[in-house]
Design brief:
Layout: E1 10-11, E2 13-18, E3 28-29, E4 32-36, E5 45-50, E6 58-62, E7 67-70, E8 78-79, E9 92-98, E10 101-109, E11 118-122, E12 129-133, E13 151-153, E14 161-164, E15 170-173, E16 180-182, E17 213-219, E18 231-236, E19 243-246, E20 254-255, E21 264-270, E22 275-281, E23 292-298, E24 303-306, E25 320-326, E26 334-339, E27 348-351, E28 359-360, E29 366-368, E30 386-388, E31 396-400, E32 403-407, E33 419-422, E34 432-436, E35 444-448, E36 453-456, E37 475-482, E38 485-494, E39 501-504, E40 512-513, E41 526-530, E42 537-541, E43 547-549, E44 557-558, E45 567-570, E46 578-582, E47 587-591, E48 599-602, E49 614-617, E50 625-628, E51 634-637, E52 645-646, E53 650-659, E54 669-676, E55 679-685, E56 693-694, E57 705-710, E58 718-722, E59 727-732
Parallel strand pairs: 3-56, 29-33
Antiparallel strand pairs: 1-16, 2-12, 4-59, 5-6, 6-7, 7-8, 9-10, 10-11, 11-12, 13-14, 14-15, 15-16, 17-18, 18-19, 19-20, 21-22, 22-23, 23-24, 25-26, 26-27, 27-28, 30-31, 31-32, 32-33, 34-35, 35-36, 37-38, 38-39, 39-40, 41-42, 42-43, 43-44, 45-46, 46-47, 47-48, 49-50, 50-51, 51-52, 53-54, 54-55, ...
Length: 741
């Protein structure tokens, strides 16, 4: 059925084969080998998708880190979207496979409703891609991002796809996703996210996000291949009428009778026996959900039943339900996950009789944290997806806000405890916020969103010590070490403790909280600096004056003669010298009295029109400064200069860092993420910015690179902080692989 009789609005733009035709590259390039610094997990995996007819073929999608493929049912993961540059397509709102063609995978890519969106399609399991930019908006990192699946392929005709959008109704393709038409007959339903309890809309504390159509579901048994009519279901995220059906291939739609109302559906799965199972929440999640349910609908008799395992609240703990799944081989076996049940933890419920009775699996579960020791400090939460292997009824996987857990003995439950392993080998979804590579000790210290930070002595293993040993922050936003004594390291962040700054005197092995912090710290947007001798610490905070302490944080004093919100860094050689930069005025400041007071140090040409500035100092050189910006690029001021000088070739410098000098050179190697001579990429200079070579390629772009630093002990090595693909490190391909140790 081609839906040729539907009123259609043909809308498709920008189709290209990935990688798209690249601009001419006047720059020389150096081939690099790229790998993840191993953490494992760390971010919200929003979906799991087994291929129904190809054993062990499994896909995962994430909210900010693209998509992955596993060829061994979750044992190992291969990133399949590292070619994406920029942030728009790094959030995957949904995905689909063609049941008849194991090589086809489709991604609905768009991280925020205000940005661009596209349907990405591959005929070789994600090795190469074609892209169709579309006018309907997506929200891979918005409310309801684990709901689904919104995208679906007709099981009888792989050229037909449907997509349920967040804002713009139902869409349809008849040519394998190359072009899309709006299904005008689908009912218009208001699906704005509702405000959580005790949150006042009038004060601006809550901005509702439209969640829209959260799943589309084909009934493959509703037609023969020779017939044209078939049944399709669609669920809408609203607490009113939310479940619709078409019996003519999508030409017309009507509400399914007798459906429950009062909660929002987030998942639906069709069992082989014709039963449809639903999970519901009173909000789409993931930020809040205080009620929910599990229901089943028997399509043959059009009857409904509430089969909720545990009603909310439980011991005064309100919660909802995140997902439900059915065993394709044994349709009486189903699993369901709670959502936002923080005490004692979220739960997986298991039923072998279609929901008549349930057993909790996690109360007596056994957990293996060996591959990611940091997970021992986390209980499963944000359990937004669960899936049973269609070829192995013993294997079940669920997702969390920090990764995937896998069990291989489901059929032994509840008689025996279920055994769970953290199934994230190769899946690295974190958002690094800070990177430093000291000249001694561990090669890398990283600050991360949500999971604090790590000291990496071995880049290819998740640290055995777990996250930083000491006060644990939710986010570590900045790190700095003393230039002349790099075993002294400071960090600053948010959440987890009452004081949000800490110090280490053994290179990040152990941390102690500072005795106090300036008022207002811990709210986000902070940075920290430490003098070359490790005796003076300066904290900078968004919309506040920088503060300095000379007694290890016992007392703080506001820095004088510098703007509110200015960011301060330390000179790597002179312990009395600090520098500050006020991005609003474009003014650079200098202090020669250990940050007690500052004086203006120069304003780069055109600073009033510049944006996203950063200030850094060249390691091992006193008074050698660099200013980088998204527009117009990079400026340098040597110790002997009177002002900053534009580096002519650089048009965009989102991030820069320094590493070991090349053989025969005295100036540290410079690494830059941005644009040079109209080429977007990652670059290296060994002659203080006079010339540059590109070191990445179009298959290794990693979304947005937010921080860059080189290794002061290994020439050519560079570390990258991505916008959702974790920490990446690269070496020239000529470097031996064992040099990562």
């Amino acid at each position: 059925m081609r839906l040729s009789q539907l009123p259609l609005l043909a809308l498709v733009v920008s189709v290209c084969l990935i990688p798209c035709a690249a601009p001419a590259q006047p720059l020389n390039s150096v081939p690099y080998a790229w790998r993840n610094v191993t953490i494992r997990g760390g971010g919200f995996v929003t979906g799991l998708l087994f291929h129904p007819r190809e054993k062990n073929l499994l896909y995962a999608r994430t909210d900010v880190g693209g998509a992955y493929r596993s060829d061994d049912a979750g044992g190992h993961w291969i990133p399949i979207t590292d070619w994406i540059g920029g942030i728009d397509f790094t959030g995957i709102d949904s995905f689909a496979v063609d049941p008849e063609d194991a090589n086809r995978i489709y991604l609905a890519a768009g991280i925020y409703s205000g940005g661009r969106a596209a349907i990405l399609r591959s005929t070789d399991r994600g090795r190469t891609w074609q892209k169709t930019e579309v006018p309907f908006k997506m929200g891979g990192n918005e409310a309801g991002r684990f709901n689904g699946e919104r995208l679906v392929v007709d099981p009888h005709d792989g050229k037909i796809l449907f997509f349920g959008s967040r804002h713009d109704g139902l869409w349809h393709s008849t040519n394998s996703g190359a072009t899309w038409d709006k299904v005008e007959s689908f009912p218009h339903v208001d699906t704005a996210e509702e405000a959580p309890p005790n949150v006042e809309r009038s004060r601006g504390n809550f901005r509702p996000q439209s969640v829209g159509i959260v799943f589309v579901l084909f009934d493959p048994g509703s037609r023969d291949k020779e017939k044209s009519a078939e049944t399709i279901y669609a669920g809408v995220s609203t607490s009113s009428t939310n479940f619709f059906r078409s019996t003519d291939g999508g030409r017309s739609w009507a509400p399914v009778p007798h459906q429950p109302i009062g909660l929002r559906p987030n998942h639906a799965v069709l069992a082989a026996d014709g039963m449809i199972y639903f999970s519901y929440g009173n909000e789409p999640g993931p930020n809040t959900m205080t009620d929910g349910a599990i229901w089943k609908y028997l399509t043959a008799t059009e009857t409904w039943a509430d089969i909720t395992p545990l009603k909310s609240p439980d011991n005064n703990q309100a919660f909802g339900y995140g997902a439900v799944a059915v065993d394709p081989q044994h349709p009486s076996n189903i699993v369901a996950t709670t959502f936002a049940r923080w005490r004692p933890h979220d739960e997986v419920f298991y039923s072998t009789n279609r929901g008549a009775n349930w057993s909790p699996l996690l109360q007596s579960a056994q957990w293996n944290h060996a591959t990611a020791p940091y997970t021992e400090h986390y209980t499963p939460h944000w359990m937004g997806q669960i899936a049973i292997d269609p070829f192995d009824s013993n294997r079940v996987l669920f997702t969390t806000g920090y990764g995937i857990w896998s069990c291989n003995n489901l059929l032994e439950a509840p008689a025996k405890p279920t055994r769970w392993e953290f199934a994230n080998i190769g899946l690295e979804e974190t958002v690094p916020l800070a990177l430093v590579s000291p000249p001694e000790g561990a090669h890398l210290l990283s600050g991360l969103g949500d999971i604090d930070g790590f000291r990496h002595d071995d880049l290819d293993a998740s640290p055995a010590a777990g996250a930083f040993n000491g006060p644990r922050f939710s986010n570590t936003e900045d790190l700095a070490f003393a230039g002349a004594n790099p075993s002294i390291v400071v960090r600053i962040g948010t959440g987890g403790t009452t004081v949000h700054a800490a110090i280490s005197t053994d290179g990040g092995k152990n941390w102690s909280p500072l005795p106090s912090e300036p008022q207002g710290y811990g709210r986000g947007g902070a940075s920290i600096a430490i003098s070359a001798d490790g005796k003076t610490i300066v904290g900078s905070q968004r919309n506040a004056l920088p503060n300095v302490t000379a007694d290890g944080g016992a007392h703080w004093t506001a820095c004088a003669n510098i703007g509110s919100g200015a960011r301060v860094i330390a000179d790597p050689i002179n312990p009395a010298q600090f520098y500050g930069f006020d991005s609003r005025s474009g003014t650079v400041f200098v202090s020669t009295n250990a940050a007690a007071s500052f004086a203006e140090f120069g304003t780069p040409p055109g600073a009033a029109n510049l944006r996203a500035w950063g200030l850094c100092a060249t390691p091992g050189r006193e008074g050698d400064l660099w200013l980088n910006s998204m527009d117009p690029g990079l400026y340098h001021r040597s110790n002997a200069a009177t002002n900053f000088v534009k580096v002519a070739a650089v048009q965009d410098a989102r991030a820069i860092g320094f590493g070991k000098a090349a053989e025969g050179e005295t100036f540290p190697a410079i690494y830059l993420a941005g644009r040079i001579e109209n080429v977007e990429g990652l670059f290296r200079s060994t002659d203080a910015g006079a010339t540059w070579v590109r070191i990445n390629d179009d298959q290794h772009q990693y979304g947005i690179i937010t921080h860059v630093t080189g290794d002061p002990r290994i020439f050519g090595r560079v570390y990258l902080a991505t916008s959702g693909r974790g920490v990446i490190y690269g070496d020239p391909e000529s470097v031996r692989s064992d040099s990562s140790r």
